[in-house]
Write a structure and sequence with these properties.
Belongs to the arylamine N-acetyltransferase family. With 280 residues, this protein is an alpha+beta fold. The protein contains 8 helices and 13 strands. It is globular and about 50 Å long.
């Protein structure tokens, strides 16, 4: 189905006039991550992740599914462009897993230019996604339910960090080189098909509701990020299936993009077996 701004705004619950100003940008960002879940079900199911605007719109808006960074930030950027914002596509090297060597650019984000400032927006970084856009300047900080975000300039690059407890954890680093669709196609293919990609071995989901705490899911471990966090091991795959729909706002009944209970159970048998092998 072709992209329509009206249906996207309805999907995220944005019901006022969309203007080219920071108030609109901030509200769109916050409502997007509250309505559309981060999730990697299609990678686990062996389905190709299509990155054209119409395919992403059909999956995340019409079908009520979620997705990961290449889908989320593509949809968000298309909406911003339709409203009239000036944007530039960027890519980042993810550092959150503390890789031994510098990783490739496998994360999509977007730079948004307004008259008064330039901002970094990112609605697709899972449980650690920015709550609202962050000013693109050295030392910019943003308090959130996740912790304190900080942006530091390192020569020609920027480093995004998150302070949790008593230290800052690097999340990703990026420069301002414009990215093209082909760049994302290559990175998306790598993330979805590289044998060691964590997206191929773990079920991941996250949602940032407006009125309740952030929710994350790793396999069958669901965490409500209250103070202190409340973690629960979902007892079986039927409970997991229900949680994806009821807690994470992921529709699973679409003719093309839906997921059956049986399909999920088969995927989770493999995922949980791999988790058990890793823990030995």
């Amino acid at each position: 189905m072709a992209f329509t701004l009206e249906h996207y705004l309805a999907r995220i619950g944005f019901n006022r006039e969309a203007r080219v100003d920071f108030s609109t940008l901030q509200s769109l960002h916050r409502r997007h991550i509250a309505a559309i879940a981060f999730e990697n079900l299609d990678v686990l199911l062996g389905r190709e992740i299509l990155l054209d605007d119409d395919s992403i719109f059909e999956k995340l808006v019409t079908a009520g599914r979620g997705g990961y960074c290449f889908e989320h930030n593509a949809l968000f950027t298309r909406a911003l462009n339709e409203i009239g914002f000036e944007t530039q596509n960027l890519a980042a090297r993810v550092l959150v897993a503390k890789p031994d060597e510098m990783p490739p650019r496998t994360h999509r984000l977007v730079m948004v230019k307004l008259e008064e400032a330039t901002w970094i927006a990112d609605v697709g970084f899972g449980g650690l996604t920015l709550s609202v856009p962050l000013p693109l300047k050295d030392g910019a900080e943003q308090a959130s339910a996740q912790g304190l975000y900080r942006l530091e300039k390192k020569q020609n690059e920027f480093l995004l960090l998150l302070r949790q407890h008593d230290h800052f954890q690097p999340l990703y680093r990026f420069d301002l080189e414009k990215q093209y669709p082909a760049d994302y196609l290559m990175a998306n293919h790598f993330i979805a098909h590289w044998p060691d990609s964590h997206f191929r071995h773990h079920l991941l989901a996250a949602l940032h509701p407006l009125d309740t705490c952030r929710l994350t899911l790793v396999n069958r471990r669901e965490t409500a990020h209250e103070k202190p966090p409340r973690q629960a091991e979902l007892k079986d795959n039927d409970t997991l299936y229900d949680s994806l729909q009821q807690r994470f706002n992921i529709r699973l009944d679409h003719p093309r993009h839906g997921v059956t209970r049986d399909s999920l159970s088969k995927v989770m048998e493999r995922v949980m077996a791999e988790e058990g092998a890793e823990s030995k």
